[in-house]
Amino acid sequence: xxxxxxxxxxxxxxxxxxxxxxxxxxxxxxxxxxxxxxxxxxxxxxxxxxxxxxxxxxxxxxxxxxxxxxxxxxxxxxxxxxxxxxxxxxxxxxxxxxxxxxxxxxxxxxxxxxxxxxxxxxxxxxxxxxxxxxxxxxxxxxxxxxxxxxxxxxxxxxxxxxxxxxxxxxxxxxxxxxxxxxxxxxxxxxxxxxxxxxxxxxxxxx
Length: 206
What we know:
- By secondary structure, this protein is of the alpha/beta class.
- The chain has one domain: Alpha/Beta hydrolase fold, catalytic domain (Rossmann fold, 3-Layer(aba) Sandwich), CATH 3.40.50.
- The chain is built from 5 helices and 8 strands.
- It has helices spanning 47-58, 82-99, 111-120, 162-169, 190-200; strands at 3-11, 14-22, 29-34, 61-66, 104-109, 129-133, 150-154, 177-179.
- Helix 1 (47-58) packs parallel to helix 5 and helix 2 (82-99) crosses helix 3.
- The longest helix is centred in the middle third of the chain and has 18 residues, at 82-99.
- It is globular.
């Protein structure tokens, strides 16, 4: 049974609060999960964020979810995505300091997906894979992402229309896993979301 514990880590705008999920056995990878837009109430306690974190821990990965600057007990103020990219990089560095340079899975939901995609461009070594759930394309300047990115979107997303996600993905020839009839928050579909992520990975045989 995976365990979770609250932690404090050093961020570029001050201390950040996080939750570390650890698998039963020695972790074979690291996962970092970014939460949705703080100005709309997004926190690391979001149900999609916690579902992703628990799923990665079930796969055997040391998983960190955290609050961006200015959210909860994390110090600093909202920075429209720029400072939040630095927050993700700090979270990744914390995880790598604790667990070594294991393969990295970088994930995010909505605004967190946008920030994770940007942060990935600054990481060396690069993440093993990006897992983006309803990333905030159209609302922010989403960068291109690697071709092996797992992109998940709801057909009836009322916040980030599927058409916008397709317009962004199309020139990249990037597949999208579309959940029929699902909205932005995947109400009633979290178990299905978990299964898609589990099916994408082969446990520790990355």
